[in-house]
Amino acid sequence: MEAKWQSMVNHVQDIHEHGTPAFPCCAHPPLEGEARDKEWLEPGTTAAIKLERVTLRTALVKDVRKLSPQHQTYSLEAFHSLIIHFAPKHTGFSFLGMYSRLLMAALHFNHNSSREVARTSDGEVRYAVRYPRFCKGGWVVRPIKEKPSYAYAAALMESLSEGYSRSPETLRESSAVLSSTAPAPLSTSCQEIAKDEAVGLYLARHSRFNTGN
Ligand SMILES: [Zn+2]
Predict the structure, then answer these.
(1) This protein's superkingdom (predicted)?
(2) What's the domain range around 13?
């Protein structure tokens, strides 16, 4: 956590590799184009030195050391990748399909969020070394968790079948209510424009780039 915190001083000076094994590079993706085009602090300037002095104050750094390396954003990132697992981006889903998949992701996440770390037969914690894409060859160590459980799916199916045997109508009604909440496709809110007019406006807007050609 200390290394991560200290990396911030580099980051604001447009330096994203930190040469520390604990936090070798920034956790953001490589900065390109507009993302790179920021008002970075110039190394060695008064502003950079003052910020460094405030950021690296011993008392503050001592507190930062006590922060959890996992629980600030790690579980949020894990939840996001779980959503991709349940609702992959390469497939288009209906509104209800997407809604159900998000609910499944949340159920799976809540059911498995307090998994114990996996241990060897000798009781040692098992670790994995990962090479995240954003780390450009850098590595991180993560403890391995026990295998996830899908018991919530069985519970869900059981309560569905119970609900159905109790009253199929109620179930059908709930399903109809759910279907009626689906919003209209996004394209219905698009304003149509004649192609000639759109191209004309586009060219007028970009004419300053064309002068002098
Ligand atoms: Zn950075």
Answers:
(1) Eukaryota
(2) 1-67
Domain assignment present for 13? yes
The answer to whether position 161 is within a domain reads yes
Measure 35 CA to ligand 1 centroid, in angstroms: 11
Residue 183 CA, ligand 1 centroid: distance in Å:
39
Nearest Cα to 28, choosing from 47, 15, 41, 43? Answer: 15
From ligand 1's centre to the CA of 128, what distance in Å?
25
Judged on CB neighbours under 10 Å (0-12, 13-18, 19+), 26 is buried
**75 CA to middle of ligand 1, Å?**
21
* Ligand 1 mean position, distance from CA 85 (Å): 27
Could you tell me the end-to-end alpha-carbon distance of the chain, in angstroms, rounded to an integer? 53
Q: What's the gap in Å between 165 CA and the centre of ligand 1?
A: 57
Of the candidates 98, 118, 124, 110, the residue with the CA atom closest to the CA atom of residue 183: 98
Task: Say how far apart CA 213 and CA 101 lie, in whole Å.
Answer: 52
Domain end: 20, 37, 67, which one? Answer: 67
Overall average pLDDT of the 133-155 stretch: 83
pTM summary value: 0.50
Write down the mean pLDDT value for the chain. 87
